[in-house]
Write a structure and sequence with these properties.
Layout lengths: L1 H21 L5 H23 L9 H24 L2 H8 L4 H9 L6 H17 L11 H21 L6 H28 L10 H6 L1 H24 L2 H8 L2 H12 L6 H19 L1
Helix pairs in contact: 1-10, 1-11, 1-12, 2-8, 2-10, 3-4, 3-7, 3-8, 4-7, 5-7, 5-11, 6-11, 6-12, 6-13, 8-10, 10-11
Length: 286
């Protein structure tokens, strides 16, 4: 379970890093729609090859709900990033972990004392790893509202996808349905944006999107794989523990930026990464 959850954080962290780089050159909505479309095509092939259609059942409604909530949360997140400082928005969005942890506790999960301590330490580490800005101009209430809505949405997706299937082939089908809904919701939002005068393509036009297809495919597939490994982690052990370990992805994103873009980590980010690792060890020992 721990290996699956940590793999989830690695994949989400790399997907966020790649998506962040792409949105510097391509409109965010286009990145979401194209990457999720490519992921849906790949998952569709897997579903056909494995005969996962036979796993269709009432649980798929959890995947549909996750597919509707996910893009809405992502749009709120991107809007908050556009309105406010990333050093505030990113750590607050990591509080998404509260939703699946709360769901697990409500369902009767009771982690040990070491795991409770690990969850507290790891969550604090994740928030600090985002580099929260402790000084500067106050953040607009709209920015905070959008960020908290995004966090609630991300957490809801984690809780829903954990309930979407009970078998591996069923998971393939659930992830495919989720991606199709992602594309439908994101595509509708992109259409509305274009109708209102927004841009669907970067200034360089369609060739820029075509050139970025491998990177877009990576972002979409990494996100899908992360959803899959999280579902496996949640099914193999306590959701409370799996959710906290999976939420370590901001640490991965920060380290990727440090290693590939030579961005310097703030002291608070370094401390956050250390706390996140300490929390992980506590969770693993419980």
């Amino acid at each position: 379970m721990i290996a699956f959850a940590l793999t989830t954080s690695l994949l989400w962290g790399l997907a966020d890093f790649g998506g962040g780089l792409l949105t510097r050159r391509i409109p965010a909505l286009t990145v979401v729609v194209v990457s999720q479309t490519l992921a849906a095509v790949a998952l569709g092939a897997v579903v056909v090859a494995t005969g996962a259609w036979s796993e269709a059942g009432a649980r798929l409604w959890f995947a549909v709900a996750a597919g509707v909530v996910g893009p809405a949360a992502m749009l709120c997140f991107y809007r908050a990033l556009a309105l406010g400082p990333m050093g505030v928005v990113s750590p607050l969005a990591a509080l998404a972990v509260v939703v699946p942890v709360g769901a697990g506790l409500a369902l009767g999960e009771r982690p040990g004392a070491a795991q409770y301590a690990g969850m507290a330490v790891a969550t604090a580490g994740v928030v600090l790893a985002g580099g929260p800005q402790l000084k500067g101009a106050p953040v607009q209430r709209r920015t905070l509202t959008l960020t908290l809505v995004a966090a609630a949405g991300f957490g809801t997706v984690l809780a829903l996808i954990a309930e979407a299937s009970t078998t591996l082939t069923g998971l393939y089908l659930a992830l495919f349905v989720q991606r199709v809904c992602n594309v439908a919701v994101g595509g509708a939002a992109l259409y509305v944006s274009v109708r209102r005068g927004g841009a669907a393509l970067p200034p360089q036009g369609r060739p820029a999107v075509t050139a970025a297809l491998p990177a877009l495919a990576f972002v979409g597939l990494a996100d899908v794989a992360a959803n899959g490994t999280y579902a496996l982690a949640a099914g193999a052990g306590p959701v409370t523990v799996a959710a906290v370990l999976a939420s370590l992805y901001p640490v991965v994103t920060a380290l990727a930026a440090r290693g590939l873009l030579r961005e310097r980590l703030l002291r608070v980010q370094t401390a956050g990464a250390a706390l996140a690792m300490a929390g992980t060890l506590l969770l693993a020992s419980g």
